[in-house]
Amino acid sequence: QVQLVESGGGLVQAGGSLRLSCVVSGSTFNTMAWYRQAPGKQREFVARLSNGRRTAYANSVTGRFTISGDNARNIVYLQMNSLKPEDTAVYYCAVSNTWPVGLSWGQGTQVTVSS
User: Fold this and answer.
1) Contacts of 100 (CB under 8 A, 6+ apart)
2) Cβ neighbours for 43, distance < 8 A, ≥ 6 positions apart
């Protein structure tokens, strides 16, 4: 059974940084990604890492967020810099071998950016 456990969320002031981690167990995947959902909004794509090296980002986070992974430990990270209040959301880790379908999800971690 696949399990994803996110950590690293919290409260930070605008302009600050956080690093999210997601530990995956139960299987390996060629795509690991981060999504987020703000209150009253739909869940949206943030970043993905494919085959351990190819990355893609939402326009809203390009240049501020960096996704990386440790394949040996089955962990994916999201380094978030220059955070803005509009980055406030629950951040979810997702994995798949058939992205963008067949996703398995973590439980989410709250990120709150104060102005």
Assistant:
1) none
2) 35, 36, 37, 92
